[in-house]
């Protein structure tokens, strides 16, 4: 073994090399806004919304108040955000084709003075939605993988129940915008019964994802009933819930809802934070409540042009999520959904992001990058090319720092 001072000198030199590799992120990271660093602005905007609605803090914390006071017209929106006459006309035109609605909470999260704000871009329609000629309404072929009402089945041991088309906000990049329609509707009870029957009759199904729309927009009693019925099916081992309520309607996570979820373990909730600005103190309160109830939380971000198609923003997002105890799980490549082409990015962008996360930050902050195969053929994990050569007796692999190493078998 080398002398102590030589070992120390090598270690110091390596530590200094590692320090150098993170300098570009350190320079930028404090300039990427989060829901915590912009909380003052949030509070001021929230106050203005409450005044305009003549509402109280009590109303604000009531998720049903949030839903019934969603902003759905350009005229309402213009009370809060400076909008040109053209933008107002555009919003009215787009609204006739693609419905939009923004919860008062999510309105308070965005930056009212910045038209390029990443939160705003997810919520306020842009005229490009009507100029997309390549997108399809159902690129995933979900309509062709539904063996029973409300069910989507694309894998051997798991399936989805789509329990509602309602969401607190209609995200402009939504892959299920074909379901949004013009009115909110939950799956009828008899259809839910048929979906449950399908699960009962197929014993290989061990994992059920309850989603929508937003699954947490079901009433407490309907959710409790559904989770109880699933618990009664011996082969259902885990329940998952797909919701964006933590991002767009954290008020939905009431103590009563948390108590219901706590009765039905194991429950996994996957949500969709796309930008660190969405990780707010109000969201954290809701997250804490879920974690206390024993719910395991994961994030499925969607890679979106102008919102998070940047390695530094994605790193910050994932690090902020870990701080509030949400595990970054997937980054989805955006699908070719009609009206969303302006958010699309090449696959190379996603690969570059993963390449710049791996090694540069904890593995916990590196989600899997997923491209969904068209036609319902499932998720394809896509990674940077770490394996350069795989031969019978050796492999040449690339490290996160681009060093090639040879492994002999
Ligand atoms: S919450 Fe999900 S389902 Fe609802 S509009 Fe947003 S992306 Fe679509």
Automatic annotation (TrEMBL):
Domain Radical SAM core: 153-364
Gene3D superfamilies: 6.10.140.1170, Aldolase class I
Residues at which [4Fe-4S] cluster binds: 167, 171, 174
Obligatory cofactor(s): pyridoxal 5'-phosphate
Annotated Pfam families: LAM_C, Radical_SAM
Molecular-function GO term, any one: 4 iron, 4 sulfur cluster binding
N6-(pyridoxal phosphate)lysine PTM positions: 379
Keyword tags: 4Fe-4S, Iron, Iron-sulfur, Isomerase, Metal-binding, Pyridoxal phosphate, S-adenosyl-L-methionine
Protein name: Glutamate 2,3-aminomutase
The species this protein was found in: Carboxydocella sporoproducens DSM 16521
